[in-house]
Amino acid sequence: MSIDDSPEVAPSPEEATPTTLSRRTFVTATTLTGAVAVAGAPLLGAEPAAAAGSATSSRVSLIVNGVRHTITVDNRTSLLDLLREHLGLTGSKKGCDAGACGACTVLVDGRRVNGCLTLAVRLEGAEVTTIEGLAEGDRLHPLQQAFIDQDAFQCGYCTPGQIMSGVGCIKEGHTGSAAEVREWMSGNICRCGCYVKIVDAVQQAAPRK
User: Fold this and answer.
1) Between 20 and 30 A from 49 (CA), which of 56, 99, 171, 204?
2) Is a pLDDT exceeding 60 seen at residue 199?
3) Helix/strand/coil (H/E/C) assignment for every residue in the chain
């Protein structure tokens, strides 16, 4: 009885059946079949990458601090980036860039918004007011003056957003008490801890009842 030492040749994937496959030929055949399948499949993530690269730009016309601007921007541009990068209005600060700190607060049609979460292309025809647009010439807005009077800032990074939020808070009529001001200003974070003086400044600037 002789032993056949000739190398075992794997059948092609088409010829392979459960009865013709040894363990070695089964592994070889499935490896070849898998390689063909992988070679013919699209790369994982290729389609989303292509979609991301196909983003388009749009023209948007809006009024910022009383001046109309018509700008072509990427559709993903935030209002904050439009103000800072396209219009050079750097008073609005980029803090968390996730809507959690309020440093980028501006007014859109008189309402408070987080600039980092607002798409610029959705503001066609809107009126935007930033910290640069509050003063009238050399005359400060009453809340700007109140922040100075009350010494309501230290590093000053959050101050533009705090003031813009405070202006909105006053317009909305949420200044009946210190507790009410704190509640309606809670979206604006001050890392220096000037909250008491900020509340005092908002109450100073609010109309007397």
Assistant:
1) 99
2) yes
3) CCCCCCCCCCCCCCCCCCCCCCHHHHHHHHHHHHHHHHHHCCCCCHHHHHHHHCCCEEEEEEEECCEEEEEEEECCCEHHHHHHHHCCCCCCCCCCCCCCCCCCEEEECCEEEEHHHCEHHHCCCCEEECHHHCCECCECCHHHHHHHHCCCCCCCCCHHHHHHHHHHHHHCCCCCCHHHHHHHCCCCCCCCCCHHHHHHHHHHHCCCC
